[in-house]
Amino acid sequence: MHVVVEIVESDPSGFYRVMQPLLRMMVARNIRRDYRTLKALLERG
């Protein structure tokens, strides 16, 4: 079994500082989706 740890850091300013909670959720969702896709591709061979 392999484990992948993803660490994403940001220091938003201006408009993005206000949107940081939403952006954090969106990035986390996209990363989970990408890992599911990668897993499926690797398992398919």
Low-confidence stretches: none
Oligomer: single chain
**Number of helices in the DSSP assignment:** 1
Biggest sheet descriptor: none
Average residue pLDDT? 90
Radius of gyration: 14 Å
User: What structural class do helix, strand and pairing data support?
Assistant: mainly alpha
Binned, the helix content reads: 55-70%
Give the count of structural domains.
1
DSSP summary, beta strand count: 0
Shape: elongated
Beta-strand percentage? under 5%
Termini distance? Answer: 17 Å
Give the helices and strands as they follow along the chain.
H
How would you portray this structure in words?
- The chain has 45 residues and is mainly alpha-helical.
- It has one domain.
- 67% of the residues lie in helices and 0% in strands.
- The chain has one helix spanning 15-44.
- The radius of gyration is 14 Å and the shape is elongated.
Looking at this protein, list some descriptive labels.
single chain; mainly alpha; 45 residues
What's the topology here?
Elements: H1 15-44
Quick rundown:
The protein is an all-alpha fold.
